[in-house]
Every structure is written in C-alpha cells, then in structure tokens.
Amino acid sequence: MSRRFDLLLRGGRCVLPAGLAEADIGVRGGKVAAIGGLGDAGAETEIDAGALHVLPGVIDSQVHMREPGLEHKEDFATGTAAAALGGVTAVMEMPNTKPNTTTAADLADKARRARGRAWCDMAFFVGATGGNVESLGDLERLPSCAGVKVFMGSSTGSLLVDDDATLAQVLANGSRRVAVHCEDEPRLRERFALVEGGAAVAMHAEWRDAETARRATERLLRLAGGVGRRVHVLHVTTAAEMDLLPGYRDIATVEVTPQHLTLAAPDAYDRLGTRAQMNPPIRDAAHRDALWRALDQGLVDVIGSDHAPHTLEEKAKPYPQSPSGMPGVQTLLPVMLDHVNAGRLTLERLVDLTAAGPARVYGIAGKGRIALGHDADFALVDLKARKTLSDRWIASRCGWTPFDGMRVTGWPVATILRGQVVMRDGAVVGEPRGTALRFQDTLA
Length: 444
Prior knowledge:
- The protein is α/β, with parallel strands linked by helices.
- It contains 14 helices and 17 strands.
C-alpha cells in the first residue's frame, strides 16, 4: 500500500466504529484510505490533531435553506457556510420553499442553484401533496433527492397532507423512508381560537399542545403499519409520543432536536419571546426529560437541527403573526458537545445520533463513519474549549441564535469535506465543494 496521502490527520482521538482510539487517518482521493499508526507516511497536507477529537462529519438531516423564494432569510451559500462552521459536512433540505419542491423540475432547480455555492454536501426532500401522490415513487429516486417529506400539520409554507386518505396514498406510493412532521391539523384548527386574536407567545405550546402531536403520530404509525412503509418521525417533543414509538420499531425511526433537549417552557418564552417559537413547540421540562429518557434508552435514532431561519424583523411581529422556526445548523454540534461535557450522553452516542444514525436511517452511501472507503468527512473538535455562543458568530443570513449568551464546553475547530479543509479556526476556507449526497437504495 502506498504510504503517500493527500491528507494525514496525526494523533487525534478518533471516534471509530469500534470505539474511541488514538489514531492517524490517511486520506486519498477524498476517501479514508488508512487508519492506525501511520508512522513515516507522508502527505501533501498534514494536520496535528493530537489535542483534538476527530468525529465523523455531522449529517444534519433536517434543514430549511429557504432557496428559492425566501433568500432574504437564508440561501444555499449562507446556510451551508453556517453548517461548515458548526462541523456539519452534509445537510438534507426541506421542500417548503417558494415554490414548494414538489416536481422533478423543482428538484433539478435546487441542485443547479446549490452547485458551486454549497460548503457541504446536500440532498433535497420532495414535498408530498394531494396533487403529486402518484408520482412520488419516481420523484424519490431522482438524483439528489433525500426522499419524501410530509407535513401533517400546517407549519411554514403551504404543504399539507391533513387527511388519512391522502396520507395513506402517500405512504403507499414509493419505498424509501418518509420524513413526517406530526401535528394533527384538525385539532390545530379547533384550537386556533385560543390565540387567534393575539396572545402571549407562551400560548404557542398550549395551542399546539402535546395531544396535537400525539394524535398525529398515532395516526401516522397506524397508517404506515398498515402498508408496511418506513417512516421517520421528525422533532418528537412529547412523552406520549415516546410511549407510542417503541411498539413500531419495525417501521419508525425517531428524531429529536437540540432545542427541545435544551430549552424548556416557560423560561424559554420568558427570555426569548417569539425567538423561542417553533413547530412543534418548546414544551415544559417534563417533556424535555422524557426526550432525554428516550435518548438514553436507545429509542432516538437521530438529532437534527430543524434549522429554520427567519429575520428578526419577522420574528418581532406580534404573536401569532410571528413565524415559527429558529436557526440551528451552526449550533447543533456545540450545544450537544456541551451536553456531552455535562455527562448527559457519551461522545460515542452523540456521533451515532448525528452521523451514523442519519446515514443508517436514510441509507446515505459512504457517509456517517470513519471507515475505510468512506468519504473523508470529519469534524475536529476541542472538547475542552469554552466558548460563548453569540448572534455575532452566526453565519446564517438571519443573524441570530436562540442560544445567544449560552456558555458551552466543546467546540468544532475544523471541518473537512471529502479530504478538503472547508473550515478552520472559525472561518470557511478554500472554495465551496459541496456535491449531491448519494443514497444506497437509489443507486443503479
């Protein structure tokens, strides 16, 4: 075997499939070519990782990059720069843009727009509607398609599948795992009078209450079980949903977000106002504790950010005119590393939730692990670094974070995408190198 590499990471504490180990990593042609003690091997570029931990690059499987049509909030260049600054090497982008991503032409347009501008690899969800049900099986197999996304409750954008008949049709058309936002639209309509004339933003969690989430998740699981379709339940927020989900492990995987693991009502609404407003809502500490129990017990498969930026001007509108959503792709890893340092989960479990888990759930080819032949995607982190998250650090066009002022321990100091350094010491470097993710069940 050649002892010459394009990139050589020396002496890092690497999170490998077999566990944590000190190792050198040799990269050739954008792939991991060697792992272990590489001694006198040489490389075009060497990085001393001796004081750092080397993690697989984070895969954020739920982001809203807002392009096309909403570029005043975010676009592919700014959103993926934020991702790279946070140790994220791949993102999967949601369909509620303008226009919604519902056709082959829409998917192709997004792929074209991202080319040459993305700082990380990307894929794009197609949104399910009553009008494209019969074509979903073909759409989900197109290049750069992450799969099908379903909104069971109205959130941002106009995509909505709120009745069982249409949802059953969506689930019956296609074979890849379907990502689902679970809030029960009939209950949302019934309860909107609680906030319709104006209310304190803390009422967001009362209007979109825990029963709204439970009902939708129960409906989804029943219908998916009936047709044998795999589903991924996004941003689960309630204890009742976590009680339901163990009975459906044959078809259902589970996501939680850093926001729901970290923030809690009423404090979040008191401190942040509408900046804490998202769908499903930030709930009280009892529900947050239930998410951590589910994570501890192995029920949670993925942590995704649900990065959903809005401008501060938009967020300043009186509730409920204010839009739901908050940025998160850049802060996902620092926030969760802080939880690691606080003893709430191990580093290995975090890697499974943010890299191996998304790759496993969605069948992403060649990503999610530091393993021979896999893409050389790494997040180099200093577990001892103490930093304060701030709006000033945020690269997203919206320019703010709900974690402004939060002191964290653990920080990404470099991001490497397919063997090329794209972020180092708090700045993106080189050129945007992002390309389309590949999926195992769509490869010829």
